[in-house]
Design goal:
By secondary structure, the protein is α/β, with parallel strands linked by helices. It contains eight helices and six strands. The structure holds zinc ion (ZN).
Length: about 210
């Protein structure tokens, strides 16, 4: 509920943020899984294997430093047909740094993505936090992807069954779902990802990259 209220305000102040991807044809049952904060050895491998099993494509909003440290894993993401987006070099909180510092963080991560021989599909602000200076600057360079469903996998106190139930209610054509391929999220992620992929598949949704 709280997150919904925040997103209503953000939608008003920052009209170009993307919360849902309109597929033009609402009959096209496409949903967009996104994984933030990786790549992380083992965890990202686990995610990649599951995505392959369900013939699903996804978007990974990676931290630049993780791309630098795990270059081969990043290449594996791309080889498997997924896309990579920018999540800053060090996962900085835009409320705690200047717009210039933040833009530098964006640019450093962008360089890491370009070093992989690919282009970023877009930007996701760490913690979903943005301010008007950063918005005005970044919106000229990149689409900014928010979400329509946040899994809450990063909080171990969240009950996987409750998340799965809520995900099922919130999967519609164009939905953008957030997960995390991080160590912190794995205890919950490992209990929710396959049931959600299973549900989407059984209901004839296609999982595509942004
Ligand atoms: Zn993040």
């Amino acid at each position: 509920m709280f997150i919904n209220e925040i997103s209503k305000v953000l939608k008003y102040i920052f009209p170009k943020l993307i919360w849902k991807k309109n597929t033009e044809l609402e009959i096209e049952k496409t949903i967009y899984l996104t994984f933030d904060d990786g790549p992380t050895p083992e965890i990202t491998h686990y995610v990649l294997d599951l995505l392959t099993k369900y013939n699903a494509k996804a978007t990974f909003f990676c931290i630049g430093n993780n791309l630098k440290a795990h270059h081969e894993l990043a290449q594996q993401i791309l080889e498997n047909g997924h896309k990579i987006g920018n999540h800053t070099m060090n996962h900085v909180n835009s409320w705690h740094v200047s717009a210039n510092e933040f833009f530098n963080e964006y640019q450093l991560c962008e360089n890491e993505i370009n070093n992989l021989g690919t282009r970023s599909v877009g930007f996701r602000p760490p913690y979903g936090r943005i301010n008007r200076f950063i918005y005005r600057k970044l919106i000229n360079y990149t689409p900014i992807y928010m979400w329509s469903f946040i899994s809450g996998d990063y909080n171990r106190n969240n009950n996987p069954n409750v998340i799965i139930k809520s995900a099922k209610k919130n999967i519609h054509p164009g939905s953008i779902l957030i997960f995390h391929d991080s160590k912190k999220a794995f205890p919950v992620l490992s209990n929710i990802l396959e049931p959600i992929l299973e549900y989407g598949t059984q209901n004839n949704f296609q999982f595509k990259t942004l």
